[in-house]
Design goal:
Strand 13 and strand 14 form a beta hairpin. The chain is built from three helices and 17 strands. The longest helix is centred in the N-terminal third of the chain and has 27 residues. With 383 residues, the protein is mainly β.
Length: 383
């Protein structure tokens, strides 16, 4: 009998040993790659620069009972943040965010500090400027448990230092500093690190990064004294009349500057809405906005008029916008409520960017310079 021998076959034991060895080698390769990606990068420099419309960030407080001040009214707090991170090769920035209050790295999420801003970055270095706005509901009041950022408690306590016989009978105001924490999640990777993944910052369960810097913002607190409408025989007598409504558009130089980010090569746009009234109190203003002839959108803001001196009352709503290319934008403001509520005409302005000086279709904005200041801006730089 002739027996044929297949030279390609190997003993079963040998095959098993080869298979096990291959699996182990593959596992080591995957583990090594995972460690390389997950390892935090070396941060060469990191800074946070905040700019706030000081005394235009108004937080209004009322008393619901006529006794102590106990209610922070709905509103918005705004600031402009310039964030810079420089990593050492082969480092990159994966995510970036700003939390309210003082916290560090991933403890920000674990402690429950409110997340004000989040961005999936996926860049070697991170240089950007963002206009950030958050609700006064994030100025937490501790109640039965300690809030991680109890600025609401501090605001109420400072208001109630002005009580008269235990009652909120005289209005008072003060400036409130609040800490913010800028944190980034970094990693190491050779080759491309982008693109960034899209995601809704309001729903991203992000708890912080591995490097943190701290900064400070400010708000102006108004502790208001209110009278119930039911005690007034003529409730319309206390209606606030808006005698002045102005809209100013201006491009300003400053903020981020880096060849790595196109946005940093564009001037920032400052949009100022100014109201003048016959008395102190809240006024609702709606702002309409259109970018490069696109869809028209609107934003509503509750502004609180305060004493400006000389028997005048008013307030400013200031916000900043950052664009990544030469852009023409137009705005229009109107007061909400009333048969003859005032409004402004549409005003447009073109924001130019270095290396992209397109000829604007229209630049009819008569307010291309900054408005006369009623309050000074405050700028804080933390490195």
């Amino acid at each position: 009998m002739t027996r044929t021998i297949n030279r390609g076959q190997q003993p079963l034991g040998h095959c098993i040993r080869v298979l096990i060895g291959s699996v182990l080698i593959g596992a080591l390769v995957v583990a090594s790659a995972t460690v390389a990606v997950a390892k935090d990068a070396k941060v060469k420099s990191m800074s946070l620069d905040t700019e706030v419309p000081f005394k235009k960030n108004v937080v209004s407080v009322e008393s619901s009972t006529g006794g102590k001040w106990d209610t922070i009214l709905p509103g918005q707090v705004e600031f402009f943040a310039t964030m810079k991170v420089d990593t050492r090769w082969p480092g990159y920035v994966a995510d970036a965010g700003i939390f309210l209050g003082t916290c560090a790295n991933r403890q920000c999420g674990k402690n429950g500090n409110p997340l004000l801003f989040y961005e999936n970055v996926m860049q070697r270095d991170y240089v950007t400027g963002k206009s950030i706005s958050f609700s006064t509901a994030k100025l937490q009041i501790s109640g039965s448990s300690l809030a991680p950022a109890p600025f609401g408690d501090e605001i109420l306590a400072l208001c109630n230092q002005g009580l008269t016989d235990g009652k909120a009978t005289k209005p008072r105001s003060f400036d409130m500093p609040m800490a913010v924490s800028f944190t980034v999640n970094t990693g190491k990777r050779v080759g491309n690190v982008g693109p960034a993944e899209s995601g809704d910052a309001a729903t991203v369960p992000w708890g912080g990064g591995d490097a943190t810097r701290h900064g400070q913002i400010f708000a102006h607190v108004e502790c208001l004294v209110t009278t119930k409408q039911t005690t007034d025989p003529n409730p319309h007598r206390n209606k606030i009349n808006v005698s002045e409504l102005d809209l100013f558009l201006a491009t300003i130089t400053g903020g981020a500057s880096s060849p790595h980010t196109p946005a940093a090569q564009c001037k920032r746009l400052k949009v100022t809405t100014r109201i003048g009234t016959d008395k102190a109190g809240p006024v609702t203003v709606r702002q309409w906005r259109q970018v490069d002839g696109g869809p028209i959108t609107s934003e509503t803001r509750r502004m609180v008029a305060t004493a400006q001196g000389g028997g005048k009352f008013g307030n400013d709503w200031v916000k900043f916008e950052q664009f990544t290319r030469t852009t023409t934008i137009q705005y229009m403001d109107e007061v909400v409520g009333g048969t003859f509520a005032p409004s402004t005409p549409w005003k447009s302005i073109t924001v130019h960017c270095n290396g992209n000086f397109a000829t604007p279709a229209s630049d009819a904005n008569p307010d291309s310079t900054a408005p006369p200041a009623s309050f000074g801006n405050r700028r804080v730089v933390v490195r």
